[in-house]
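Example record for the data management plan.
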Amino acid sequence: MNSLKDIYSSRKIFFYAIVIIAALILLSRLFALQVLNKSYRVSAQNNVLRYVTQYPARGLIYDRNGKLLVYNQAAYDLMVIPGQTREIDTLELCTILGVDQEFFARRMRAAVQYSEYAPSVFLKMVSSETYARLQEVLYKYPGFYVQVRTLRKYTYPSAAHVLGYVGEVNNEEIKSDPYYRAGDYIGKNGIEKSYELQLRGQKGLKIFLVDVHNRVKGSYQGGRHDTIPVTGSNLVTTLDIDLQRYGEKLMGDKNGSIVALEPSTGEVLALISTPDYDPSLLVGRIRSENYTRLQNDTLEPLFNRALMASYPPGSTFKPVNGLIALQEGIITRNYEYFCDNGYYAPGIHVACHHFASFNMPEAITASCNAYFCNAFRLLIDNPKYGSTAEGLNRWRSYLSEFGFGSKLGIDFTNELAGFVPRPSFYDNIYGENRWRALTIISMGIGQGELGTTPLQMANMTAIIANRGYYMTPHIIKAIDDDTLAVDQSFRQRHEVGVDSSHFEVIVEGMKGVVNGGEDATARWVAIKDIVMCGKTGTAENPHGPDHSIFVAFAPEKNPKIALAVYVENTGFGSTYAAPVASLMIEKYLKGKIENTWLENYILNPPRPQVREEVEEEKEEEIKEEEIDEKN
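Corresponding structural encoding:
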């Protein structure tokens, strides 16, 4: 009997011991969770805590001379957490916000669909005046609070295609980068997009204690869990805003583009596409409406012609074909060809307006079609290549070194490659081995299937100015005043595989275009005291009048600027593009315009029938000045 009692007593003690041990484990766990570990307490108190994202100020953007182009101003978004709202005076709130009750109901439905317990934007970009009134009564509206952010402001109504714009993130952008949440903003185009990571900075977070009346009582635990936003980096662009604005003024209501580069560095001095738009149109609550209007505009102001338009380069391409022919030994500087008002071959006639014999520099100056058709035929059908296809491939390899047929790699996301046809392109049209140089002879004068962008043509001109190399064009000079923070690939020279001596031959001809005799195609736009080298071109346009093109660099020695100018539907290169290029160069190198006659000609162009008379009068003046100088 005693043994049974002993057994029972032992089991009882064992049971009590187990209960006590379990209780101690449970109590220690509760102590750890409630006292040592604060995370569960924070989760339990979510209904009285408000998590507010601290948006950083986006980085500022300057031009190459330190002029401020883009800055920030405060903006206010009214946020809502549907699960925390109560019955409120919706009429009063709608009156303050300047919206109707239908809008209120629609936004609340959208907020509930997004999340009952997560904040979403109820009304974007509330004005400062409305924000001030709202702050006084916000305690009446549980679940509503104001989120401070910044909007972009522009010092000048210029350079919209360069600067780009900022817009709200879409679902794809949120999925591709976990940094972003619904309602965040991101660079959508231009510099704002290309340098989004540098400009956006880093978001912070503030946790506030809020009472039942929606009033902030202070930071949670003294701000121990807060994080500070990091301001975005400031960017110094290569742009000269004065030159940019002047170019936009010269283009006026014309369609076209201007790309100006510093040859020795590849820095973009001006990048103009017209028609353009005021960048402030795509900021704030009016952005969506204005974007739709711009997108539907038949003149396509959102289209960046400087980087995306592909044109036949016309006669401005003759210097490249001349360089290739010289390098391949097909012709020499003094090789002459007689132009009999065009180029003739069996079944072929390419028109020209000369009846004279030219060497290479003279052919550049006079823009002789016959000379360059002959040079192209000799190059493509050269027996040493084995076949016409191999000849075309050899020509294409040179063009590739010049950057044609592919993207140059400028720091924009919307650059296009242009088009340089392969042999397979013609095989598909004519059949393999069933075409020759005469079939594609128009590419000898920059026409036919060839397509180049204004950026590529400006880069080609920089290569000639540099006598054989280029630096990848780029728009950013420094990040937070640190030039080494910029992609160092922009500082690498790209040699094009043509001897520098051959470039001197082409430069001689381009110098003659502006500073030569009666055969010069653009001598009426010469700049006093500056030797400008250029080349006129006319791009055939099957949809209307031809496009006026001009490429140029200056000065002849140690060039400081190289550019390409396209003015659509205005005819010969000397008519509009050459004067615009001349004025741009004079503005950049002199800082002012002395040739006010030429400036007035572009800003107030005469009627077509008068224009020829004006140009003839100017030509007569030049001849009289030459006679006076000789005497």
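Summary line stored alongside the record: The chain has two domains: 51-237, 250-274+301-630.
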